[in-house]
Automatic annotation (TrEMBL):
Residues 68-160 form the Methyltransferase type domain. Keywords: Methyltransferase, Transferase. This is Methyltransferase family protein. GO terms for molecular function: S-adenosylmethionine-dependent methyltransferase activity. Coiled coil: none annotated. It comes from Leeuwenhoekiella aestuarii. It comes from the Bacteria. It holds the Pfam family Methyltransf_11. InterPro entries: Methyltransf_11 (IPR013216), SAM-dependent_MTases_sf (IPR029063). GO terms for biological process: methylation.
Amino acid sequence: MTKRDSENPDIFGQALLDFYTGNHTEAITVISSLTEDDEIPVPYLFRGFDAMPLVEQEALRLAQGKTLDIGSCAGSHSLYLQNKGIDVTALDVSKGAINVCHNRGISKTIESDILSHTEKNYDTLLLMMNGSGIFETLKNTQNYLKHLNSLLKTGGQILIDSSDIAFMYEEEDGSYWRDASRDYYGEVTFKIQYKNQTSEAFDWLYIDFKTLKTEAEKAGFSCKKIIEGPHYDYLAQLIKL
């Protein structure tokens, strides 16, 4: 989710509330600096376990102990874990998203961005749906990973998914182009639109596994790839040393 202020509407939250209350009429439009506009069907954000990608299913199988679902959105992951008996808290910066999580029956919810959250001694931190996106840029990754490290018990884990988007820069002749204005090819700028409202532009990071592993080890974690998905995506497990 994006950081919000009075000039930046809670677009995801409004879309989630509309669907939950039966007022859903359209998808969320995603405007990208890298590719053509795309859409997020709002019902997909309420999906059950069987409709989740394999990387998400595997992350939910691995989650254990006191768990924080970071960027919980509509709470689908939190709800699944709660129903398994796991002590899970749904955290999102979106007021609307947290309202939906609460209304769907998730017992513990927090409306906050992750850098403002300081509760400690978690066993699992869950970052799904390209969880590395919240790092914004590669330069910011250490700041976020060190903060996440501070929230975990020794031996605690981060379960995070991302994608290597190098393929999006490939030309027909097999060569690759790069955006010279970016420090790293996985940095993308987005805006989102819903019902005639448009967010401010925000940065979102896609990170290849090799780079994530390097950054994780600098921040005091071991890092291994758990599973690869079908679309250049993967699930990684970071363990606090």
